[in-house]
Amino acid sequence: MSESYNVSDKVEPSKKRILVCDDEEPIRLLLNESLNDSYEIVEAVNGRDALRLSTKEHFDLIIMDIKMPNMHGLEAIERIRERKNNIPIIICSAYREMEDDIVVKTSNVAAFMVKPIDIVSLKSKVFELIGT
After folding, report:
1. Neighbours of 42 (CB within 10 A)
2. Strand, helix or coil at 114?
3. Domain 14-130 adopts which CATH fold?
4. Rg (CA), the chain
5. Span 56-82, average pLDDT
6. The pTM is what?
């Protein structure tokens, strides 16, 4: 007896995963809604949370705020780089002057975007870095 194969039984390929880390809920919501049609989004509320999640789970990209409670974004980036040096990281910060910080310059950050976030530019950068 042969098994039938239904086209609808095909498993969709899993979406690439993005870790969005920002202490402001409206920013996390905006990024989630803007990217979740093409990517699986996981949210972190601070650098410590991002470090914990990135250690336990696989992500294709991290979008990180800098100034957050509990653990500064730059400290989180340094610690993530110690473990996963090749993951692309996009910094989204309201503090343009932080772009010149030594940690940003030496941490192989893929992009630095200033808030308010230009969603079209962000989506373009994400696609450039990890595709869909």
Report:
1. 17
2. strand
3. Rossmann fold (3.40.50)
4. 17
5. 93
6. 0.86
